[in-house]
């Protein structure tokens, strides 16, 4: 966040806190005031100044973010609510909460973002991670199922051999070993490979997820930072 000094209080706020550095620099150049300057200011400090003397301090939003906020509000306002943002817009998503461990236990907070693109990227990355984990878990579960089925088949086979085969014949068969991989194991392995490919194509592609309707949707919420 950046603050700059204008000509005087009579023309508006003495200090303006810009959410975008390029906006602040452009504003100073446009004023062409020798004493005008741009400097960094912590957000919490700027907010305290604004609350104490709102007539002297003003937050200036980025126009791109204002347009994004008003576009969202047009959709949200259909269900009731304000149609236009006042001040600096902040973005979040419904049910988006963060757990933070404190001395008083776990506290839940709702994060807000000044840049909608940043929120978009975070939500998209979290969804991608969710499906990557799902693909991996499904693959591991299939492998465990094959191992469990193979062990069960071996136990049944060994018990049947012990009932019908003489010990001498069984020893010879054990020394010879298995002549190959059982057909059911090969079939199961091929099935696993096929299902893994399907998972990667369908679950691993966000465009296909959207086309098939399995992509999670997070309704966006817009509010004013000053409020």
Automatic annotation (TrEMBL):
The keyword Chloroplast applies. It is found in: Plastid, Chloroplast. This is Uncharacterized protein. One of its GO terms (cellular component) is chloroplast. Keywords: Chloroplast, Plastid. It comes from the Eukaryota. GO terms for biological process: protein transport. It comes from Ananas comosus.
